[in-house]
Design a protein that fits this description.
The complex is a heterodimer.
Chain A lengths: L12 E5 L2 E9 L7 E2 L3 E8 L2 E2 L5 E5 L2 E4 H4 L6 E2 L5 E6 L7 E11 L9 E10 L2
Antiparallel strand pairs in A: 1-2, 2-9, 3-8, 4-5, 4-10, 6-7, 6-9, 10-11
Chain B lengths: L4 E7 L4 H5 L5 H11 L3 E5 H4 L9 H14 L2 E6 L14 H18 L3 E4 L5 H13 L3 E6 L8 H13 L4 E5 L10 H9 L4 H12 L4 H10 L5 H11 L17 E6 L13 H10 L3 E8 L2 H4 L7 H16 L9
Parallel strand pairs in B: 1-2, 1-8, 2-3, 3-4, 4-5, 5-6, 7-8
Helix pairs in contact in B: 2-14, 5-6, 6-7, 9-11, 10-11
The chains are: A mainly beta, B alpha/beta.
Chain lengths: 130, 335
């Protein structure tokens, strides 16, 4: 459910730190009917223009706090709320060139009552302004 | 005099599409529910309230009660989750599961809900261990009996036996009407076809469902027909759904205190094509059911890829159907 709402249309762009462009970021939501604790988010897999991003280069941020995907697995209090837009940052020196880019996202969450660990996918073409 | 009292309610789960997208506020949803006469309100707090089950400000509870008073609605049930798979590398210890449930019992009490829903996969011993605490808070814990489970399944029988043995009057059942899926829902079929299932395979699966063919035979047959990917996925839905009999609720009426009126689609002429609500309401009347029947719309996920979702209109139609089936309009003078 909510597959097509996972990648948000707004918020796509390069990320700068001082004078350096350190990566790019976009906003994403959970494809689920409730929020969940971050320890139950097993993976946030990003593919950009067909190229899979290594897990260790992905950062997850909500409400001003940031985690690596490994750190999220032992975050037992903070949550990704229902419908909440998280910032997904991909560390990548130089970021992305202006123009259209194909963003693919696969979120894997561990849900207690499900007899499987679902992975849900979305794909969108987003643009970085020149 | 009838010995039943079937009251209309709604689970805010029904409006998840509009709430997720921020198109409707909590107040909007309470207001439209009250306007439909769905005066009992059920909710999944991890959907309705950001950060829950972390502690919430008192203002959240104050606002909730203010909304109930403003619109004349009644809190019915807080649905809790119990994330016993919180730790990737280990199961949640028993005592921690019990403590987690007590947080939900407290929360239900603060919301004014007489019931709290436990998911069907929860260990009955955890619920029994919470029974005295639930009684002290005057909150009843209801295990949700949800497809593919049903009242004759050994897991549910184990719950029933544990509840009886405990002697507690604070443990019961919340049946989800989706377990009485008499026909393959048309919105499911249409979605699978959009996802690439060939028409003849989709037709076969629906026919096999109506013939009550065992799911494993249907899956094998679809494989033989050359079905792959979404075709197998469509066949596998038969493992998780079945046309169990509404009358199987009758043996458990003394512990059924709330009901999820699951539905996937309400047509313009007020019919749910796949779930036999006429039969269900008849059984509830026969069983002397006294409690709420809460709309639970779950059609959005089957149409949102291709069509706009109007959860409010869908719930409104189901509520209109309930008015007729319950007989609320029966007292109106003949034209």
């Amino acid at each position: 459910m909510f597959d097509k709402y996972m990648i948000c249309e707004d918020g796509f762009g390069n990320v700068t730190e001082g004078d350096d462009t350190i990566g790019f970021a976009f906003q994403a939501r959970l494809p689920y009917y409730r929020g969940i604790g971050l320890s139950m988010v097993e993976d946030i897999a990003v593919t950009i223009d067909g190229e899979a991003v290594p897990r260790e280069q992905v950062r997850f941020s909500v409400r001003g706090r940031t985690w690596t995907l490994d750190e999220m697995e032992t975050e037992y209090s903070d949550r990704w709320n229902f419908g909440e837009k998280a910032l997904i940052t991909v560390l990548r020196a130089g970021g992305l060139p202006p123009g259209k880019h194909k963003v693919q996202l696969a979120e894997r969450i561990r849900v207690s009552y499900l007899p499987f660990v679902p992975t849900t996918r979305d794909s969108k073409e987003l643009e970085i302004a020149a | 005099m009838s010995n039943y009292e079937i009251k209309r309610g709604v689970s805010l789960y029904s409006y998840q599409e509009e709430y997720f997208l921020g198109k409707k506020s909590l107040e909007d949803l309470i207001k439209v529910s009250a306007e439909m006469g769905a005066k009992g309100i059920e909710l999944i707090s991890e959907q309705t309230f950001p950060h829950y089950p972390n502690p919430l400000d008192q203002s959240v509870y104050d606002n909730w009660h203010a909304l109930m008073a403003k619109y004349g609605t009644t809190p019915v049930c807080h649905d809790f989750m119990l994330d016993y798979k919180k730790y990737k590398d280990r199961p949640m210890p028993f005592d921690e599961q019990v403590a987690s449930c007590k947080v939900d019992i407290d929360h239900a009490a603060r919301l004014g809900c007489p019931y709290t829903r436990a998911l069907v996969s929860i260990d009955p011993n955890v619920l029994v261990a919470c029974a005295d605490y639930a009684e002290s808070k005057n909150v009843r814990i209801l295990i949700e009996v949800h497809a593919p489970l049903h009242f004759d399944h050994p897991w549910i029988i184990r719950h029933a036996e544990a509840f009886e043995k405990s002697g507690s009057k604070y443990l019961g059942f919340l049946p989800d009407m989706g377990m009485f899926l008499f026909k393959f829902p048309p919105v499911w079929k249409a979605k699978f076809i959009r996802d690439g299932v060939p028409q003849h395979i989709a037709d076969y699966i629906c026919k096999a469902y109506e013939d009550r063919t065992l799911s494993e035979y249907v899956i094998l047959e679809v494989e033989k027909m050359g079905g792959v990917g979404p075709a197998i996925g469509m066949a596998i839905t038969l493992r998780h759904n079945a046309a169990f009999e509404p009358k199987r609720m009758l043996d458990h009426m003394d512990r059924i205190w709330n009901i999820h009126a699951k539905f996937y689609e309400m047509t313009e002429d007020l019919v749910e094509p796949s779930i036999p609500y006429d039969e269900i309401i008849k059984v509830l009347k026969q069983g002397g059911y006294k409690g709420y029947i809460c709309s639970e719309y779950e059609g959005n996920r089957w149409i949102q890829d291709a069509f706009p979702v109007d959860s409010i209109e869908q719930v409104r139609r189901q509520q209109e159907m309930f008015k007729k089936l319950i007989g609320e309009t029966a007292a109106a003078p003949a034209a």
